[in-house]
Write a structure and sequence with these properties.
Helix 6 packs across helix 7 (184-203) and helix 7 packs antiparallel against helix 8. The termini are far apart. The longest helix has 22 residues, at 208-229. By secondary structure, the chain is of the alpha+beta class. The protein is 40% helix and 16% strand.
């Protein structure tokens, strides 16, 4: 009955949202419409839930979903959701190791909405939380933050001896060695949070020494990330350092994406890192290769398997580094995973098998019987949907939100030659944005029929406006 009601509500809601995407690619139109519908059916009492089979209590889900599109498309819902995972709006709540993602999402929410009142309170909440985390999770011997990797609350994401073979709990924190590990993605998020705090402090005209203090902490953390995770000879980033100081060299899809998005690694090294990343037929997997206890036939739930949220950030990193073929591989892959009858079948699922493309929740741990431990891939997963929204907004349309402007660096792959996004509410304006052509080089940028010198608009713009971008 729960699934039937969700599907029925999805059907009824086909044309109830304001934003409309039209292009000469029917699959992209359908996938974007499905993504926005997925967001809308997961709004419960004003809070954005993690998915059709989940609630709204996870800080990481709400932060990522706000960052990847909810703050633009559903700003009031995003704001309510962000506050819902705080403790009296004073500190950030829930699982400790990656909750500082909230600060990044809060900074982005301000850049999208321009809400200074929200910014002021969000800055204090983020600063209070960072101070607590510095006191409880920072390892001064490495200059890194401790704890599991971002979103990976299942033990399938970790090799031995972090994983304890005789411990049959699926929860990572039930394995005592997880508390003292250092992970790439988590430390990249702390770096991004320091940068967000520095920016928020500056936007609020706080004492310059406070603003600079956060930036200096960010730079020191960046140095320590590169010292401890970067293999300059191979131009790769390692996954984690375990409790004994042993380095695991696995490729962490989210970790390398965040390292590029936040600028921890940049230039040609960043471009090659993304270009040479190991990806499956349908996109990058979470962590590769398989740990010894998993395999193609028994994929680990948080190991060598596709989480579309990871693919969304990898696509973002691909755009940052001008790896357009890589971006298009991820974009096309997620389109098929969501829509194809033998895959999502018009459903943004939580997890997919990288070999078949079918929904597959993978394996966590199996106990002594080694039976009945295959997990479900949950339905109508919000961050799978917002990953696609991000691919459209940040990728195809190339939107970058700044304090005083909204800029565009679009890209149209070979499968699309015209695309339009209507009724986008940006601060005090409503925008219809049209792109025509191929590739990434802008031939002309017009606002209400008037040709502009650059490819951005001021954040003070008001009312209804039409943007047309023509690509060479």
């Amino acid at each position: 009955m729960k699934i039937f009601c969700s599907v029925l509500f999805l059907f009824i809601s086909l044309n109830t949202f304001a934003q409309e995407l039209t292009s000469d690619n029917a699959s992209v139109n359908d996938a974007f419409k499905l993504a926005v519908q997925t967001v809308d059916i997961n709004i419960r009492r004003g809070i954005l839930a993690a998915g059709g089979d989940y609630g709204g209590e996870w800080t990481r889900d709400i932060s990522i979903n706000s960052w990847n599109g909810a703050s633009l498309l559903r700003p009031k819902v995003a704001e309510n959701s962000l506050w819902s995972v705080t403790i009296k709006r004073d500190t950030i709540g829930h699982q400790y190791w990656d909750k500082i993602l909230w600060a990044i999402a809060a900074c982005n929410h301000y850049l999208v909405t321009g809400d200074k009142a929200f910014l002021a309170r969000a800055y204090k909440c983020s600063a209070n939380t960072m101070k607590q985390l510095e006191q409880t999770t920072f390892d001064s011997n490495y200059g890194l933050f401790m704890g599991p990797s971002v979103f990976n609350d299942g033990i399938a994401a970790y090799p031995e001896p972090i994983y304890e073979p005789k411990n049959y709990s699926s929860g990572v924190l039930d394995h005592k060695n997880s508390y003292h590990i250092k992970c790439l993605s988590t430390n990249c998020v702390y770096y991004g949070a320091y940068i967000a705090l520095s920016r928020m402090s500056g936007f609020l005209n706080e004492n310059s020494s406070v603003t600079e203090g956060y930036r200096q902490k960010a730079e020191m953390l960046k140095k320590n990330i590169l010292n401890n995770f970067y293999n300059s000879g191979k131009n790769t980033l390692n996954y984690l350092i375990d409790q004994n100081g042993k380095v695991d060299t696995s490729q962490e899809g989210l970790g390398i994406s965040f390292a590029v998005i936040f600028g921890i690694i940049d230039g040609n090294n960043a471009s090659l890192l993304i270009k040479n990343a190991v990806v499956s037929q349908f996109g990058i997997t979470s962590i590769t290769p398989d740990f010894p206890r998993y395999s193609k036939d028994m994929p680990g739930r948080h190991n060598n398997i596709i989480w579309p949220m990871v693919n969304g950030f990898f696509a973002h990193a691909s755009m940052v580094t001008n790896n357009y073929e890589t971006f298009n591989h991820e974009f096309s892959g997620l389109t098929h995973l969501a829509l194809d009858e033998d895959k999502g079948n018009y459903n943004f699922r939580e997890i997919y098998n990288p070999y078949s493309g079918q929904p597959d929740g993978g394996y966590q741990d199996w106990g002594e019987s080694r039976q009945n431990y295959h997990w479900e891939s949950c339905k109508f997963q919000t961050w799978s949907a917002t990953a696609y929204i991000s691919m459209v907004i940040n990728g195809l349309f190339g939107m970058t939100f700044n304090e005083n402007s909204l800029s565009f660096t679009p890209f149209l792959p070979p499968e699309i030659s015209s695309i339009e996004l209507k009724d986008i509410a940006y601060r005090d304006s409503k925008l219809d944005i049209s792109i025509k052509g191929k590739g990434r080089t802008i031939k002309s940028f017009t606002l209400d029929g008037r040709k502009q010198k650059g490819s951005s608009i001021a954040s003070t713009i008001k009312g209804m406006h039409k943007i047309i971008i023509v690509l060479k």
